[in-house]
């Protein structure tokens, strides 16, 4: 069977006739048919026996007269190369610039190759002398290691930093000063040691990072050239001493910026800090370094007695971003490092920080999908399987909450989630000996049952279904909290009026009280976000034809009641928390103030839009206590311009609400007098 090739063309008619002539019977003298013979002979002749165009005209697609040198080559000045020669192509300005760039890059590559050879020689020479080097590189440092790290630094960044002005410069962390070194011993308090070291570090030392580390930090989270063990050892020289690292780790869970810590305390202490500061280990994992640096940054920002806390936090945050690396694969610690970075941009009123947090969560989503953490893969050790599950559910909670606040569609909510919940690391033990789920375990289940569906409902492009809204609201109310996280005394019934306020009681332990408040505000915040659209349809006068509406009898009365109760419950819970533990509310006021501000705005909107309703009268009574409470707490915490502006806004809102209520009362009395006057006129007539 004949198989045509790529260059095959259909045979010409004359060729076909010649082939047929070969198949026909010949004459007795052995000759073929005359007509077919002439056709075959004609086929063998060349089609055009004249000269072809010159090479330059063929290249330029010009019309050549085929008399060499041709008229086109003579016209263009190429008669000396016609007909076989070809001129060089003329480059445009862009082409010439690219040629110069390529030439410069080739020259730079040759210089860098020579530099690599020199640094490799220095590295081999240093390796022969580092046998006596102490393996604990964070406490005792010798001069030999600095030649090695400077060489590695120059090798990674491609510059002459090791031989420049910073060749002899060293940074030894917070243990550099003599006062700190004398204060650090086994018997002294770690907190006092850290406080004494804070005053010894100057602004110049805090900002004296090499330019290469700054460049690596700016390339976070996608950075290159940081997989060398020497580079990790160079970054590890900026670690605090082990005592200070343990103090930062312990203080992180007491004074963190977020009410939710994305990494368990046992994992941070045993799996990360212990490995970095262990003896006889190779260069530390880059993500482990990033986690420790970021924990130090988060904790340092909360040390109010440290005059350099903002500088120190930015210093460790820069190191945490510089140490982060993806070239060694994606592990649970990789996701932990990115989620920790999201804690440093918590203010929803800072647009740049909010966008950065969204970008980091997007990177996490891609890494989780690429590594298969969204599937329950069993080809790992049991410990790693549990860590992968923990990291996946932590990401889901953080990302779904962000999407609910930002209005973006969440991940992993359109498909069935295969990943089971991780085991509870620290279950709560009751006095009776019975174990209950901890706050972390409740957060995972609450995220799956309530946060994810609510985020999907609120960010969906489909028209809202009120029946589905009520079903989600019922699931939030029906979510069962363990007894050690409950603060509401008795079951809620009807509206929370000022005559019968909700009874809230927090634990005597500050840490336990904080966990109770986290559980309380989580469900109440979901109720506010879920019912906000239907609430506005029930309250807003513009959506009700500028008419007075009885909110309690509206078709969306359930949403209006739910929002009213949630706002009252949030304010009551914060006032009860302040009465029991004022230091807890003061420390977390930056996060709680937005919730209280939202509650005040909700009640103010009810009082202004529908002043004749039953909810408006109760809202005014609640506002009389909530607005002064907000203003006093904002003045006490002194958190900045935002609280000052918010205090002015809610004060003006309260004044307007009272004015609307007074005006409504005057209108009602005038209508009553007019009705009475008309009645008397009818009687007289």
From TrEMBL:
<dbReference type="InterPro" id="IPR007219">
    <property type="entry name" value="XnlR_reg_dom"/>
</dbReference>
<keyword id="KW-0175">Coiled coil</keyword>
<feature type="domain" description="Zn(2)-C6 fungal-type">
    <location>
        <begin position="53"/>
        <end position="82"/>
    </location>
</feature>
<dbReference type="Pfam" id="PF04082">
    <property type="entry name" value="Fungal_trans"/>
</dbReference>
<protein>
    <recommendedName>
        <fullName>Zn(2)-C6 fungal-type domain-containing protein</fullName>
    </recommendedName>
</protein>
<dbReference type="InterPro" id="IPR036864">
    <property type="entry name" value="Zn2-C6_fun-type_DNA-bd_sf"/>
</dbReference>
<feature type="coiled-coil region">
    <location>
        <begin position="95"/>
        <end position="122"/>
    </location>
</feature>
<keyword id="KW-0539">Nucleus</keyword>
<dbReference type="GO" id="GO:0005634">
    <property type="term" value="C:nucleus"/>
</dbReference>
<dbReference type="GO" id="GO:0006351">
    <property type="term" value="P:DNA-templated transcription"/>
</dbReference>
<dbReference type="GO" id="GO:0003677">
    <property type="term" value="F:DNA binding"/>
</dbReference>
<dbReference type="InterPro" id="IPR050613">
    <property type="entry name" value="Sec_Metabolite_Reg"/>
</dbReference>
<dbReference type="GO" id="GO:0000981">
    <property type="term" value="F:DNA-binding transcription factor activity, RNA polymerase II-specific"/>
</dbReference>
<dbReference type="InterPro" id="IPR001138">
    <property type="entry name" value="Zn2Cys6_DnaBD"/>
</dbReference>
<dbReference type="Pfam" id="PF00172">
    <property type="entry name" value="Zn_clus"/>
</dbReference>
<dbReference type="GO" id="GO:0008270">
    <property type="term" value="F:zinc ion binding"/>
</dbReference>
<keyword id="KW-0479">Metal-binding</keyword>
